[in-house]
Amino acid sequence: MASATTSVSVAREPRLLSQTVVVIGGSAGIGLETARLARSEGADVVLTARDPKRLEQAARELSARSSAAFDADDGAAVKRFFDELPAPIDHVLVAAYTRREYGPMLDSSSEEVGWGVGRRVSQVLEIARHAAPKMRPGGTLLLTGGSARPFGREYGITAAAFSVLPPFTAALAVELAPVRVNLIQAGFVDTALAASYFADETAVEARRHELRATLPIRRVVGPVDIAALAVHLMSNTAITGATYDIDGGQRFID
Predict the structure, then answer these.
(1) Predicted model pTM
(2) pLDDT digit string, tens, across residues 80-107
(3) What is the DSSP string of 128-193?
(4) Which CATH superfamily groups domain 20-189+223-252?
């Protein structure tokens, strides 16, 4: 006599239930997708961005706890935001856009090069300084950056600016403990921001086609891929001071 097999579905508790996730740069792209996934995992989300109109739309879509429009490079605005934000908070994702400095380094002044290399570090330090006192132990400050490659005259200081982030992340993890600090370094991610670096849509599509053909994963990395890693790093409390490359293997072919 054949026996029937019964499939039992076991409910999984949301990974970020009753936690608060602050997304700096949360109105589009990686920030918005991470906020959306965090929300689905039970978190309350607080969104910030430069563009008030786009931010309002994102906050309404996700039923965000609150939102605030300001430039993440404005230290006074960052301080004011965290001063006014009720504690406690659990996780802060820094996904705000930081303009890349292209062009040969020798065509720029030493001051401009130093500013370009240190801009992301300075931005994160101001966020960390004001966010950490309100964060629960075991929460994470999660940074985002780009690939430290390729090198070339036309890329100027871009590689140097990204290369400084892994040791900076590790050092900050030691200083902020027991708050955790981790870094996601991505290659090309198919977002509107990435597309804006190309001359037109034809050039963007050519890059997508090239990546689909050459990446080991045979597809283009999207913001949902970054969001999945970000939420994992928020929920896994054993990880700090770490850098994760998520580029579909782009670093092996460029």
Answers:
(1) 0.89
(2) 999 999 999 999 999 997 665 566 777 7
(3) HHHHGGGEEEEEEEEEEEE-S----GGGTTHHHHHHTHHHHHHHHHHHHTTSEEEEEEES---SHH
(4) NAD(P)-binding Rossmann-like Domain (3.40.50.720)
